[in-house]
């Protein structure tokens, strides 16, 4: 009988923000699938998990999701990742694929899930704390209150995406904002939002930053902005 | 020395979706503050917490947040709740106020937090799994992928709020949708979104429902809709 596939969100960084269920599933799964952008790369999700669960003696399976520009090339990597996991499931072993944050928010797991679901394998998703929830808690601001709305956007290709979100929503979260931090502080200034914005860099990790937008800081990839039109 | 105030999200229902940190804080806090809508009411947050933590012998403090229509009356309840907690903090005891879901998403904790922060007490927020993340995981759909956006809205006063969100966002979550379920299935049909919607009723609780919108079902207050314009 084929093994079961679990997609497990391990939260944004602090191992204590893993759920009891995530810990249990990682503990009991036969194999932990670890997504990386390049072979041999250190995985943040794995370093979180191993601080909460004893992984010594556990079988680890590296799956590469290359960040190629070409969608065709990325699809090849995704299919290969799914097939790598499939081979293990066919041995009757259960596999827990771990991802940073939540399993349903900008997660690489979805590609593997769709392929293996289609093939008929038993699957289950275990949610995790999204970085924006952990970031808001760290900054002690609400994400959304009363009758307000919240919009989450990512990977800003241009200024228009954030402008439109600010126009239609009371609160805006920008994820993976690192690459946009060369123009975002200025844009927020223009929109009158500078003092209504919290920047969260690598929350829960060693080089965590929580504070106002600052043009002179070099922010990492996992930078999150929380913009509250009604003020912080 | 005054005690410290913790705001703790216990997740949407399944006690295993509590974080390791939430469990630890509830275990070690001197007093657990339990928000209810009326004195003596059973608290869902408490019933979740007590399935994961042994609360026998723990001091419980009921704080009433009445759902009065009048904002002035609600403010009186909020201030009284904050003052009730303040008195305990002043005895040097730490207090963990528990809420359903995440502490930063539509949470009553914010009112207590603002008042007591202003008064100078030490405070900390512990995030929890929001119901929409747990619901998406349960339905095995992504909330947001690639360059997509996600908008979260609540307590629909009129159809326009959902229509506008659908116009500007790739994915829309409607929280506390129970009261709107008399017109939402029809509206979703009109917008061509019926087969792109998952309804999640009381996820993690005994009477959980995960499925398409259905006019003939009576949905509870904690009903969540996930609408994915690109399809499920």
TrEMBL record, chains A, B:
TM stretches of this protein: none
Name of the gene this protein is made from: cobI
Domain Tetrapyrrole methylase: from-to ranges: 4-210
Pfam families (alphabetical): TP_methylase (PF00590)
Coiled coil ranges: none
Keyword Lyase: no
Top EC class, one word: transferase
Cross-referenced SUPFAM superfamilies: Tetrapyrrole methylase
Lineage: Bacteria, Bacillati, Bacillota, Bacilli, Candidatus Onthocola
PANTHER family in the record: COBALT-PRECORRIN-2 C(20)-METHYLTRANSFERASE
UniProt keywords, alphabetically: Cobalamin biosynthesis, Methyltransferase, S-adenosyl-L-methionine, Transferase
Pathway(s) the chain acts in: Cofactor biosynthesis; adenosylcobalamin biosynthesis
Presence of keyword Nucleus: no
Protein name, entry field: Precorrin-2 C(20)-methyltransferase
Single GO molecular function: precorrin-2 C20-methyltransferase activity
BP GO terms, sorted: cobalamin biosynthetic process; methylation
E.C. no: 2.1.1.130
Family to which the UniProt record says this protein belongs: Belongs to the precorrin methyltransferase family.
